[in-house]
Amino acid sequence: MFEARLGSTTLLKKIVDALREILSQSTLDCSDSGIQLQAMDNSHVSLVSMLLQNDCFEKYRCDRNISLGLDLKSLSKVLKCASGDDAVTISAPDKADKVQLSFESAGKERTADYELRLLNLDQEHLGIPETDYSCVVIMPAIEFARICRDMTSFSESVVIACSKDGIKFSASGEMGSANIKLSQTSKGDVDLTVEEPVTLSFAGRYLSTFTRATPLSEKVKIGMAADVPLLVEYPIEDYGYIRYYLAPKVDDPDA
């Protein structure tokens, strides 16, 4: 038996919104330690990893490991049926072909139950190697979202250059060019750890899609190193994270 209860549906809505633009379907791997998800987007350009530890939940029970294959757009539709302050319980028997979502209003005067068919998804588990990033930047998530939006209005490609002086985002296209640079601040709004400078080019539309996770966290962590995928990580309070990995574009970022 698997059962997990959150005191508020809001967090689950934010997580699903952060995932569903990249993944149409995915598998939640549930164990006694919590819930994990790992999947590549349809074009195999980006990878998403999510962790929710069991202490995130008001109640958590997982008698044996269970994988729940879900259509994320269908899950999003069900979540829209609930108010943000409704409690939500996700449950499934050990050999389930459906998962049940039960919502309960704060005063318990309204309850609602929905069932979603589970999907048999053949998803490979790719080992994500531990990477020592040459540059690690922690910055306000809202600022990162704004920069990605502004850059993609100029070009499909966004160049990110990180050095001890700061992190610089650049885009150039027919309309013109855009350059935004952030330096480390004494207030700690932007924090830089740089072992060696890195300049890489990325597909802007993926960066913009990643920023759908902005409501989850005030800060976003960016990790860069030569010839490895970019890391964009949004912590989920103290209970886990959503991490996006994006392969660099092969064209010369200095071109």
Task: Please describe what this structure looks like.
By secondary structure, this protein is mainly beta. It folds into 2 domains: 2-117, DNA Polymerase III, Chain A, domain 2 (Roll), CATH 3.10.150.10; 135-246, Proliferating Cell Nuclear Antigen, CATH 3.70.10.10. It has 4 helices and 18 strands. The chain has helices at 10-20, 72-79, 141-152, 204-210; strands spanning 2-6, 25-31, 34-40, 46-53, 59-62, 66-71, 87-92, 98-104, 111-117, 135-140, 157-163, 166-173, 176-182, 191-194, 198-203, 219-224, 230-236, 240-246. The strands form 3 sheets. The chain has a 9-stranded antiparallel β-sheet with strand order 6-2-3-4-18-17-16-10-14. 32% of the residues are buried. The mean pLDDT is 92.
Please summarize what this structure is.
Its main location: nucleus. With 255 residues, this protein is mostly beta strands.
Instruction: Report the radius of gyration as a whole number of Å.
Output: 20 Å
Q: How large is the share of residues in beta strands? A: over 45%
Shape category: elongated
Number of helices: 4
Key features of this structure:
255 residues; mainly beta; DNA Polymerase III, Chain A, domain 2; Proliferating Cell Nuclear Antigen; 2 domains; 4 helices; 18 strands; 45% strand; DNA sliding clamp PCNA; Pr_cel_nuc_antig_N; Pr_cel_nuc_antig_CS; Pr_cel_nuc_antig_C; chromatin binding
